[in-house]
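Backbone shape codes:
***
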Amino acid sequence: MSLLGVVPLGVYVFAHLWTNLYSLAGAESFDAALKSSRQAPAFIFLEIFGLGLPILVHAWIGLKIIFKMRPNTMQYKTLRNLKYLLQRLSGIGVLLFLGAHVVKARLMPAMAGGTETWAGMHEALSEPVTFTVYALGMLGISYHLGSGLWGAALTWGLTVSTRGQKIMEWISAFAFVLLLVMSSLAIYGFRPFQDLY
């Protein structure tokens, strides 16, 4: 589970946000960057088997863990215990956000005979409900992936010492902040709530 969360999914999140940062340069730059990112001959294959399938497996295992867990944050009030609970809650939020994102940014434009564009994202993010869903979704993804890095390092035996775990806490906090800044800048680049005409 942690391998799928870090390697295909974590790498994709970073690459996707990197592409979305082209929103800061305007409509032409974003649309060109998005088109370029999807021109690989095996794009659909990679999207289904390198992204969709890992998401489903990661979500399935995550939901099984959630249904088995017995929160004890009131009994054991430690930061690590709270992080464990937040990791599970953010996972549910991320799953719901991904469903909304796929519908809004991929399926709806495809059903209209096109693809997502800067103008479409500007329009969507100018809707208060969509803006709120995206802002919370990106907060959840940033936390889930940042915290997931810490858990993955522990699971893989990379941080067995107390010192190693503390260092990894700083790395995961940095990853959280980096992803949150990238996603905030990308959203800002779509100029939500600004009248462009």
Notes: The radius of gyration is 18 Å. Residues 2-189 form a domain with the 3 helical TM bundles of succinate and fumarate reductases fold (CATH 1.20.1300.10). The helical segments are 2-20, 27-37, 43-68, 79-111, 118-125, 128-155, 162-189.
